[in-house]
Specification:
With 475 residues, this protein is an alpha+beta fold. Helix content is 60%, strand content 11%. Strand 1 and strand 2 form a beta hairpin.
Length: 475
């Protein structure tokens, strides 16, 4: 792939033509009317891409099959289930079928069309003698018409439709990547919520144990009533936090079930802890992003389709040649209708040049040009957004690593401080407010460690998706 890149500027036009457009249209059709003329004002080689990631991405090619890096069979099964059941993904696949049928409609306009007609009639009249006479007449007609594509208007319309199919295929692939990332993120959210629920239950037990120590000292006259009230208050606060975390866990599970097209009963049947992954994620070269991300390929193909639509709208203002012909037979008996073959035929052609339409065709062409400009700006905006997505995920990773390591130490220190505060309180060396503050810091540090583990995983998923990495290495 290196042969397509200059030191500072992308030279991707050849790659886009040979690897993206040609498979969608067919080599012959593309070479006849593809990359030679265009209304597009910016090409892939005009996009300024950095030589390397500014915020320090890890060296190496973007890995395929990132799902395997989590080594979690449950997650693998959930992603596989979502590829079949996810409703948004089903809609994108159905849209692809619609696009393919639209391409078939556009392709059919380049071929002759034939119609078969069969008519019958009965006529009654009186002869000179006053007798009623009935006459049956049957006719069969085969008619055809062919729009001669003198200027390539129909071929451009077909090209636009087939490019739209290729764009929708890229959209489906991007949707599959997105759904896989969403399922993985929601799965980790469930694990986080479950761990925090376990932690909330443990906090309530610990707070209840502290309350029992204070209550025992109060009954012995060793502690003040204030300490007892503070202990009771802390128990109720932790009971309320437990109820809130139970609801959060149900909602996280329901969100995952909805993405899997299951009924969202909100009951968690997953266990385990959030994985801790410390290995780096290779980020590749920034310039490769244009070729790898499905949403960028979709936007580029949509831009090419808009360009083909513009060409078709322009060619619609040229003269059009239509060939028509028909042949038929007539008989008074239906059974003998075709015995004598087709006894009459006609052949005609018509050449039509628009003279005055009050600016309709010019307006249609101008609309096509504006749609092209919109698609162009959409593609450019998406390109630079894609660069920013990677840069943000790369820098966020370093920040999360620092925070996670710091809170691991904070968790260890706050747990030791809590044990010491409880011991000193029982010996009358510190007040109960010191115990409460130590509890708060210890509990918060434990919860933050769990949350940061999930945030690290979510950022890892975001980086995989920003890089356009495939979740299934077998594809």
């Amino acid at each position: 792939m290196d042969q397509f890149f200059a030191p500072r500027r992308l030279t991707l036009a050849r790659y886009f033509c040979s690897r993206i457009i040609l498979p969608a249209l067919g080599a012959a059709a593309f070479l006849g009317a593809g990359c030679t003329t265009s209304g597009i004002s910016v090409a892939p080689e005009d996009v300024e891409a950095p030589e390397a990631w500014v915020r320090g991405g890890d060296a190496g090619e973007v890995e395929a099959g990132w799902l395997a890096s989590f080594s979690d069979p449950t997650l693998d099964a959930l992603v596989a289930e979502s590829m079949v059941g996810n409703r948004a993904l089903k809609q994108d696949r159905l849209q692809l079928q619609i696009a393919r049928q639209a391409a078939a409609v556009a392709r059919s306009s380049r071929f002759p069309a034939f119609d078969l007609g069969l008519d019958g009639s009965r006529r009654e009249f009186e002869d000179e003698a006053g007798d009623t006479i009935s006459v049956d007449t049957y006719s069969a007609t085969v008619s055809g018409r062919f729009d001669v594509d003198l200027w390539g208007e129909l071929s451009k319309a077909q090209q636009a439709a087939e490019l739209s199919v290729a764009a929708q295929e890229a959209r489906v692939q991007g949707a599959e990547y997105s759904v896989a990332g969403t399922i993985a993120g929601q799965y980790f959210d469930v694990l986080e919520a479950t761990q925090l629920l376990t932690l909330a239950e443990s906090r309530l037990e610990n707070t209840q144990a502290s309350h029992d120590i204070v209550a025992s000292g109060y009954r012995q006259g060793l502690n003040d009533a204030l300490d007892l009230y503070l202990a009771r208050n802390q128990v109720e606060r932790e009971r309320a936090s437990l109820a809130q975390q139970q609801q959060s866990q149900r909602e996280a599970m329901a969100a995952l079930q909805l993405s899997l097209a299951r009924y969202p009963h909100g009951e968690a049947d997953f266990s385990g802890e959030l994985p801790v992954l410390n290995d780096p994620v290779p980020t590749g070269l920034p310039s490769e992003l244009l070729l790898r991300r499905p949403d960028l390929r979709e936007a580029w193909l949509n831009l090419l389709a808009a360009d083909a639509d513009l060409a078709a709208a322009h060619k619609a203002r040229f003269p059009q040649l239509l060939l028509t012909g028909s042949t038929g037979a007539t008989s008074v008996r239906l059974s003998e209708l075709l015995d004598g073959g087709f006894s009459n035929w006609s052949l005609a052609f018509g050449l039509t040049q628009p003279l005055f339409d009050a600016g309709r065709l010019a307006a249609i062409e101008e609309q096509a040009l504006m749609r092209l400009r919109i698609a162009e700006e959409a593609w450019l905006g998406l390109v630079y957004d894609a660069f920013a997505d990677v840069e943000n995920a790369v820098s966020r990773r370093a920040s999360l690593e620092t925070r996670y390591e710091a809170f691991l130490e904070a968790e260890k220190n706050s747990r030791a401080a809590l044990d010491l505060a409880l011991d000193q309180y029982q010996r009358g060396l510190v007040t109960y407010t010191t115990v409460l503050e130590s509890q708060r810091q210890a509990f918060d540090a434990e919860a933050t460690v769990v949350q940061l583990r999930n945030q690290r995983l979510q950022n890892r998923l975001a980086l995989y998706l920003a890089l356009g990495g495939d979740f299934d290495g077998s594809q």
